[in-house]
Structure formats: structure tokens, C-alpha cells
């Protein structure tokens, strides 16, 4: 089998006496959605910060695209295609949907923020903006300010911006948070085909969505992966049911 796109080995991080990551090993392979679930405080966001490089593990290794990136900072990782999708919640409220997506297209091209105005006259960039907006169902909302769109639309704008940056992996921290059943269904449909563009590490509390999307699920409790397997395996695992699914 090919080497995983992203792999963590025995990653540990302690805050005082608290083991937020306790020997975590995890693989993300091409074409898959790997869901990371676990109760609040389990250490999911801490793990994501270590993948992004904004938090350094005390021990263990993180490999990405065939290289050891454990000692690289966030921007060096982002340049390699890791980490850009972490910034997805950085929608600028005073910008329109169009300007926000354009910013993401420009960020990928490595151009400075100040070039945004010129980019607005760049037909190729504008064409891309339209395509990303269409993919997330925001084509009719391009001229609306981000502060005036609905919560679900904002989450979809974040996905459009993540797509525009063309990362080699998507790492999404609770993309369904705060959404109703309809929003969750729309987001589920949107994320489903993305795994073929880049594999997705999906941290999510909505079990309906996780069971619908995941190729694999890992369960984190008190900083430790207590189980990892297919949807069926995780749903039927007695320890997982006890620790997390509320049996
Ligand atoms: P999750 O995302 O699974 O809800 P977190 O990764 O946010 O969990 O937090 C895991 C544990 O680590 C929690 O007990 C949290 O309070 C603690 N924690 C997270 N970040 C810090 C920090 N910078 N300093 C101290 N404790 C932290
Ligand atoms: Mg969290």
C-alpha cells in the first residue's frame, strides 16, 4: 500500500499534568475520509494544532507527503500543502463572498493581500471564484457581505475558501457545528466527493454525518486512541459505546 499522506506516530503533548495527546498514532490515506471523534476535552483540537504546526509535540513524529515535518513551523508546513485548510474559519466579515473566495485563490498563488484589487480584474481568478462558489451553492450570493449570510452559508464559504487553496489534505474541525439537520445534510453532500481531491481528516460531533461520510473512524478519549476501524466496527465496539456513544 502507498505511504499515507499524513501519519502521526506516538505523538504526545502534556499541559502541566494533563496528557492532552498520549501516544497518538494515526494515518490519513489518499482518497479517504478519516473521522476523529471523541468527547469534549478529549484532545482533538490539540492534535489538529500539532498537525498544523502551531503546537509542537513533546515527543513522537508527524510525517506528511513523505517527509518528517515534526520540527517545521506552520508556514513551512502550509507551503507543502499542509495546514492551509486549518485557516478556513478566517472569513473576513466586511468582505463579500466573492472577495473572500478571491482572497483564498490569491493566497494559494502566494500573492500578497494588497494585490486583491488587481486580482478582481483578473479573468482567470474571477472564473475560479465563480466555480468555487457554484460548487458550494453560493453563486447567487457572491455580492453579499460575509457578515450578512446565514451560518450554514458561512460554513460553505469556508469550504469554498479551503478548496480554493488546493491543499494536499483537508483537516476540518467540526464543520457541522451549530447546524440544523438540513444544514448537516447539505454539508455532508458537499464533503462527500472532496475526499477524491484531497483526503479529509474530519473532526466532527454529528454522528449521523460521521457515519454517512467516514471510510474510517478513530476514537479519542483522554488523549488516547481507544479504537480505530470502519463505521461498522466502531458502531459495534462495546468499549466505544461505553466511553462515547452513551451506552
Ligand atoms: P477537544 O478539541 O477534543 O474538545 P482540546 O484539544 O481542545 O479537546 O483539549 C484537550 C485538553 O487539553 C482539555 O482538557 C483542555 O482543557 C486542555 N488544553 C487544550 N489546550 C491547552 C493549553 N494551551 N493549555 C492548557 N491546557 C490545554
Ligand atoms: Mg475541539
TrEMBL record:
A GO molecular-function descriptor: ATP binding
Record Pfam families: ABC_tran (PF00005), BCA_ABC_TP_C (PF12399)
Key words, A-Z: ATP-binding, Nucleotide-binding, Transport
InterPro entries: AAA+_ATPase, ABC_AA/LPS_Transport, ABC_transporter-like_ATP-bd, ABC_transporter-like_CS, BCA_ABC_TP_C, P-loop_NTPase
Claim: Transport is one of the keywords in the record: yes
Residues of the ABC transporter domain: 6-247
Domain of life: Bacteria
A single GO cellular-component term on record: plasma membrane
Matching SUPFAM superfamilies: P-loop containing nucleoside triphosphate hydrolases
Protein name: Branched-chain amino acid transport system ATP-binding protein
